[in-house]
Write a structure and sequence with these properties.
By secondary structure, the protein is of the alpha+beta class. It is built from 12 helices and 6 strands. The longest helix is centred in the last third of the chain and has 25 residues. It is globular. It starts with 8 loop residues before the first strand and ends with a helix. It catalyses: Thiol-dependent hydrolysis of ester, thioester, amide, peptide and isopeptide bonds formed by the C-terminal Gly of ubiquitin (a 76-residue protein attached to proteins as an intracellular targeting signal). This is ubiquitinyl hydrolase 1.
Length: 334
C-alpha cells in the first residue's frame, strides 16, 4: 500500500478463524482472503446459502466501489483495491481518521467512479502506475505483468474450464492422461483473492470474478458482535475444518504507528515504545523479504559459477549438480 501512495493503513496477518483472533483495539476496515481456486469454487454453493436475498438492497450501497476482473493474474490487486477504495465511504462503518488515498489512486478513482464495474476493470489493467506497482511484487519483475488473456466476468466454473482444457490438450498431444494431470496441477496451484467488508450494516464479499458484489447478510450491532467475527465464522463455514486448505487471511487495519508514536512520547509509556519498535522492525523485515523475493539472482549465479569454473575450484557437489542440471535439460528436449 505504501507503493500505491496510501497512508493511514496497515496489514495484519490473521492466524486463526476463531473469535478473538482479531483485536478490537484496532478494528479492521476490511479482510482479504486468499485460498486455492479449487476450494474457492467449492465454497460457492455454501456461500449462496448464507446470502440474505430476501432483503432489499440497503440505501447507500450503490456508493460502494466495485470493479470486475477482466484480465488474469490480477485478483490480489483487485481485492486490495476493493478494500482501500471503500475506506471511510460508509459513515456507519469502521472509520480510519488518518486515511489518505494518495494522489495516484485519487486520480484513478475520480476517473473510474462513473463507469461500470467491467470498464473499471479495464481501466485498472491499463493504468501504468498500477501496472508498475503490481509487477514490482512479482518474483521476476522483468517478465511479470498483468496477463493479456481476458477473463469472463461471471460465476467461475473451474470444472467446465478443466474439461475443455483437458480435451484441447488431449487433441493436441494425443495423451489425455498427461493433459488431465497437467490441468489438475494448474488448478491445484492456482489461488484466488476476495475481499470482505462491512457496508451500511451488511457484510459484503467483493470478488472481481463475479458480476456484482455479494450481499452476505445483515450484521448485528457492533457492540454485540463485531463485523469481523461474523466474517471469520462465515469463512470457517465455507471450508472443511477437518482438512483445511492452504489459505491466508489479511486484515487491513488503521496504521498503529501514529498512535503509538504519540503514546510513546509520554515518559511512562514504555510498553507503547516497545510496541512501536516492534512495529518498525516488522516493517523493515517485510521490506527486506520483498526485496529478496523480487531480486533477480540469475546473473549472480552465472558469474559466480563461471568464476569458480575458471579457477578450477569446483567441489564434487557443485560438479554433480551441474551435471544433473544438464541431464535434466537434455531430458526435457527429448
Amino acid at each position: 500500500m505504501a507503493e500505491l501512495g496510501v497512508k493511514g493503513l496497515s496489514v495484519l496477518e490473521v492466524f486463526s478463524l476463531f473469535e478473538g483472533s482479531i483485536s478490537s483495539e484496532n478494528e479492521p476496515v476490511g479482510l482479504i482472503l486468499c485460498l486455492p481456486f479449487n476450494d474457492y469454487a467449492k465454497s460457492k454453493s455454501r456461500s449462496g446459502a448464507l446470502r440474505d436475498t430476501a432483503a432489499a438492497q440497503p440505501e447507500g450501497a450503490n456508493s460502494m466501489f466495485f470493479c470486475n476482473q477482466v484480465i488474469a493474474n490480477a485478483c490480489g490487486t483487485i481485492a486490495l483495491m476493493h478494500v482501500i477504495m471503500n475506506v471511510n465511504r460508509d459513515p456507519t462503518g469502521p472509520q480510519c481518521p488518518g486515511f489518505d488515498l494518495g494522489p495516484e489512486l485519487s486520480r484513478h478513482l475520480d476517473f473510474v467512479e462513473p463507469l461500470q464495474p467491467s470498464v473499471r476493470g479495464l481501466c485498472l489493467s491499463n493504468d501504468m502506475f498500477l501496472r508498475r506497482v503490481h509487477n514490482g511484487f512479482g518474483n521476476l519483475p522483468a517478465s511479470m505483468d498483468f496477463a493479456d488473456e481476458p477473463v469472463t466476468v461471471a460465476e467461475p466454473e473451474p470444472s467446465t474450464t478443466a474439461r475443455s482444457k483437458r480435451k484441447k490438450a488431449a487433441d493436441t498431444d494425443g495423451d489425455a492422461a498427461a493433459a488431465a494431470d497437467t490441468i489438475t496441477q494448474m488448478l491445484d496451484s492456482a489461488f484466488h483473492f476476495v475481499a470482505l467488508i462491512p457496508f451500511h450494516g451488511r457484510l459484503w464479499e467483493l470478488d472481481g470474478l463475479r458480476a456484482d458484489p455479494t450481499d452476505l447478510g445483515t450484521l448485528p450491532p457492533a457492540d454485540t458482535k463485531p463485523w469481523y467475527n461474523v466474517a471469520l465464522e462465515l469463512i470457517a463455514s465455507r471450508i472443511d475444518l477437518d482438512n483445511p486448505p492452504d489459505l491466508n487471511l489479511l486484515a487491513i487495519v488503521p496504521d498503529p504507528v501514529p498512535k503509538l508514536t504519540k503514546t510513546a512520547a509520554a515518559a511512562e509509556a514504555e510498553a507503547a515504545a516497545r510496541e512501536l519498535r516492534h512495529e518498525k522492525e516488522l516493517r523493515a523485515q517485510y521490506e527486506g523479504e520483498r526485496i529478496r523475493a523480487n531480486f533477480n539472482y540469475l546473473p549472480f549465479y552465472h558469474d559466480f559459477l563461471a568464476e569458480v569454473a575458471a579457477e578450477r575450484e569446483r567441489s564434487d557437489v557443485v560438479a554433480r549438480a551441474i551435471e544433473e542440471g544438464f541431464q535434466a535439460a537434455e531430458d526435457k528436449t527429448k
